[in-house]
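Thread: Phasin, structure

OP (GT): Posting the sequence first so everyone is looking at the same thing. Length is 158 residues per the record. Can we get the structure tokens written out before standup tomorrow? I want them in the notebook alongside the other entries.
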Amino acid sequence: MTDTPSKEKATPKTAARKAAPAFASLEMPAAFREIAEKGVIQAKEAYDSYKSMAEDATDAMEDTFATINKGTTDLQSKALGAAKTQFNVGFDYIEKMLGVKTLSEAIEIQSEFARKQFDTLNSHAKEFQDLASKVQAETAKPFQDGMTKAMNQWKLAV
């Protein structure tokens, strides 16, 4: 019988165990460590910057939608007020026409009604146009401001 050392079966696990102490004693060079740390810091700054831009864009969209909602409510209110006015004017006209005694009186009431309707329609159209322009300007402002801010931040980040 000869004395031969027992041979372990070489497997990737055993090879890694034997190699681990050799790698454990190696240190990463300071230059590599510094580069890695700078890369992590830059990645964190970029993430924070893009996160901030996304939050600002979301806030701008929320402000825009809130302004659209308010503007739509104002337009609906104006439309309901105009409809109520027209409804009442129509009933007044019918009431006057029911009390007509002569053809000339009917023509006079009809002419007055047509003139008032034309003036009222022009007035309402101008009010709607002014309100719609105001809503459009107010709606665009938060979106434009938010997008300008986000783009400026993006330019600084890049």
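GT: Both are above now. Quick notes for whoever picks this up: Residues 30-98 form the longest helix (69 residues). Residues 51-157 form one domain.
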